[in-house]
Amino acid sequence: MENRVCQFKGMWFKVANLHFEMEGNEAEVLRFCPNLRPFLSAGAPSRLFHMSHGHTLAAPEGIPDVEEHINGKHIRIWLSAEGYDIGLSSGRTFSASRLHADHDWKQIETDLAFARIGDYETLNDFLMLAFTYSAAFARTVLVHASCVAVGDEGAAFIGQSGAGKSTHSRLWLRHVPGCRLLNDDQPAVQISPAGEIRIFGTPWSGKTPCYRQDSARLMAFFRMRQAVANRLVRPAPIEAFRLLLESASMIGRDSHTFEAITRTLAEIASRVPVYVLENRPEEAAVRLSSGQVFASKPLR
């Protein structure tokens, strides 16, 4: 892998109390990726990963192990004993940007040269991928969820697209005093070294700009399901684990990171209540869900 002449200054970020370093022009990165600004850090004794740019990365030979179209983007992933190779392209461009990571996602290289604005969008995607898989080895999981908090207690709403996750968060913001939005798409759930389970805001919040260096103790998951009446169901433990698993961000065919993520999810599922919330988009549904988390807190 031959390097181009492309030198950048090191920048540090902190997400879910995990620090990572990336080479880049700070002013330009924060200009085109303002979602990263709240997570800028002065550095740390240890780092989750280091990402560098401007490398010449050839496309791997053979059929990719994973190939998906997500939100208008085409992603291809090759898995090998040496690590991971990723090609990412959008509907606006034919050529793919490339990333290579070692086996534990500690050292990451991209071919980004930042000659076009689109490179910064790709950088944001690459950072989310890098955090997802490197954090797997730090008992931290990104989940597809909308999450809210009141004081130091939080709840996460999971489910398929269109299930009402964001709608339910907005209803909480309207009807639960002191409620704030932590993240609306990809919060991080972490088991701390002390054993506490917390949910964190991240730089990746989907279509809702909510980029907060903030966290709360995770009190419950609610798997959203639209229905004609409001009802709360507590599934069996194995079903609760399955619901969390289908909400986690991961490369399912990669056994190395898959095992790390599933171990973390299994412990979370055993300690944090998971409910299925059959609901209508109304205040009564908020009373039902919030009553499981904040039994002593009155609604507006």
Written description of the protein model:
The chain is of the alpha+beta class and 300 residues long. It has 6 helices and 18 strands. The protein has helices spanning 26-32, 118-134, 165-175, 237-247, 255-271, 283-293, and strands at 10-15, 18-23, 40-41, 50-52, 66-70, 73-80, 83-90, 97-101, 107-110, 140-142, 145-150, 153-158, 179-183, 188-191, 197-200, 215-226, 231-233, 274-279. The strands form 2 sheets. The protein has a 9-stranded mixed beta sheet, covered by helices on one side. Strands 10, 11, 12, 13, 14, 15, 16, 17 and 18 form a 9-stranded mixed beta sheet that branches. The longest helix has 17 residues, at 118-134. The protein is globular.
Number of strand segments = 18
Beta-strand content: 25-35%
Mean pLDDT level: 91
Distance between the termini: 60 Å
Please describe the structure with a list of short key phrases separated by commas or semicolons.
300 residues; globular; 6 helices; 32% strand; single chain; nine-stranded mixed sheet; alpha+beta; disordered N terminus
